[in-house]
Amino acid sequence: MGSTPATTANAPTTAELMEAVAAVGAAYFQDFAGAAARHGLSSSQAKALGAVHEPVPMRALAGRLGCDASNVTGIVDRLEALGLAHREAAAGDRRVKIVVITEQGRVILDLVRAEMARTHQAFDAMSEEQRIALNSICRQVLPVLSGRV
Q1: Residue 8: pLDDT above 80?
Q2: Which of 41, 65, 75, 123 is surrounded by the fewest CB atoms within 10 Å?
Q3: Rounded to an integer, what distance in angstroms lies between the CA atom of residue 85 and that of residue 75?
Q4: Residue 19: which pLDDT band, with cuts at 50, 70 and 90?
């Protein structure tokens, strides 16, 4: 009996890559939402905290969150009520409201990210070379997916 020849893996199809990325994104989102909930936040509220790492106009925040500007009002209202963010009038146009994360908001966001145990477990299991490759691939794909090319 001869040995069977080693087969080389075929490159995944675009559909297979799309499904793999979607599955990773969904698992990441579940981990993120669970950590956010432990701090009394919806995933949208926690995502908004991450999107205002620097002051952001309300309309731009809506774009970053991929939702209508009217939805952002409720999200920011809740963050303000919790002391995690506040609104300021823009210097150049007082009609424009800027969302600013508070120090307490930064602490909560850091805790949410730190408590994403499954995500940390998955990334910590990767070698340095794998982490570099994944980061490079994400940086290559993201501008195309987000329409910034």
Answers
A1: no
A2: 123
A3: 10
A4: very high
